[in-house]
Amino acid sequence: AASTCDSSASNQTCSADAEAEVLKGVPVIDLTPLSGPVTTTEFQQLVEQVGSACQQWGFFQVVNHGVPPDLIEEFQAQVKAFFELPADQKSAIKRTSSNARGYYDDEFTKNTPDWKQGFDFGHIPDETKPPDDPANVVMDGHNQWPTAAQLPHFQRVMLRYYHALAQLAARIMAAIALSLNLPRDHFALDFTPHTSFLRLNHYPQCPRPREHFAVNRHTDAGALTVLLQQYGITSLQVNHGGSGRWVGIEPVEGAFTINVGDMLQVWSNDLYKAPEHRVLANSQRDRMSAPFFYNPSYAATVKPLGLCLGPQACQVDPHYRPINWGEYRRRRFEGDYANVGEEVQIAHFRVSGDTSTADVTAAEL
Ligand SMILES: O=C(O)CCC(=O)C(=O)O
Ligand SMILES: [Fe+2]
Fold first, then answer.
1. Where does the Fe2OG dioxygenase domain lie (predicted)?
2. CA torsion 343→83→93→149, rounded to 10°?
3. Residue 114 scores a pLDDT above 90
4. Mean pLDDT, range 40-60, rounded to an integer
């Protein structure tokens, strides 16, 4: 089947192993053992599955993840209702250059406009206070919601779902820590408090899908993404192993799709790479999705951990300079928001290598 390895954008050596892996697709992992004791064989196997999925794909799907199906259904109904609101009601809560949260229909990825509409909201320190109370204005800005008259249950359902996903993400990070030979709670402090945000995506039908991407190729900036895809539509693709071979991620019913982000790539010193992915535009159907970006605290300094993965296999050469998550997040948002300049990428923090991207130093950020 060597001919199926041909890809004009690729200079990979097409090994039979890589081919077999691509044909099987992104792994599906059953999280049931995560709720049991660490000592079981099933738990160990789960940790190994997570580790090899992170190494081979940077993507996997999870089932039996513990998020109640009725909460997911309620959430999806609210997402649909939100995007069906009249344009002027969505525009009234548009995000701005100084507030990363709210509605938008003008996002840029890689300096090209995405064929989509979105809505972002995130972590707030005090849910008993209004969203724009000074106590709730954080580095990313503040949450903006449709009015209670427009969508009476929206905010409540969004926040319930958000907290459920934060819990799931923390459980998956614990499995990832174990897969890196670290204590289960190794990352807990880095995420106290976490600065995650949830993004609602609506991709309208696109009359000329060859001329646009719903979302152009990118990596996710944070640590881990927990994505809810719409069942029955395969539009999300991953650049397998950076080979230039784009492989569709077919949603499994009831599953979440997980992917590694830039910060985990740095912590693991490139053992787990943040995979490039993109979303194709579709002329036949519209589509919804909702990525939950699990992010460290703004103050967290992220740097290679010096992992020891076997008796004689400790990492000694850090590939990255230390990165302050808050600054990195700010720079990435500036790139998303405006069609100007070069977006900051993780490659800018590489210690050595591609000098063409080494002009932005940690000191400048
Ligand atoms: O819609 C999707 O499946 C993925 C969206 C995505 O990659 C993103 O919003 O970062
Ligand atoms: Fe993404």
1. 193-296
2. -160
3. no
4. 97
